[in-house]
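Sharing a chain and its predicted structure for anyone who wants a worked example. Both blocks are below, sequence first, tokens second.
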Amino acid sequence: MEIIEGIVTRRSIRKYTSKKVSDDQIQIMLKAGMYAPSASNQQPWHFVVITDRMILNKIAEVHPYAKMLTEAQLAILVCGDEERELSKGYWVVDCSAATQNILLAAHDIGLGAVWLGVHPREERKNEIRKLFDLPQNIQPMSIISIGYPNEEKKIPERFKPERIHYNAW
């Protein structure tokens, strides 16, 4: 798949089949996440791969928009490490880029995925922090629900020339 085609055709997929995601596919997605750009190349991310059904179900209980995890084959928790930052607060931007890379990689290898926001919602962060016993310097950013898609979505027209400005507003 060409990069632009992948960007335009990727959709948020919330329904999955029971087909297992392979370890090789997981490694491809993690590698894509680790090749995201980051401020001062600090790469302040950590990834928690979640395949345990009980943990996936528990996340679905504590996160208000994570019900699809009861069907997902796995999830990846993307976390930022505040001790790896040179510029305070950039872990959010860096982990967002890593999350997007993982979503695009999943799409490219035939999987469906959706980004579940954790940061900046303190109540979500606290629940995830407790569930995974995260160290104080590790901030949960997002959870990516992943599996083989069991739904198809149309590609909407999102290109809006009226929102483009050159050299000034």
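Comments welcome. The chain is about 35% helix and 20% strand.
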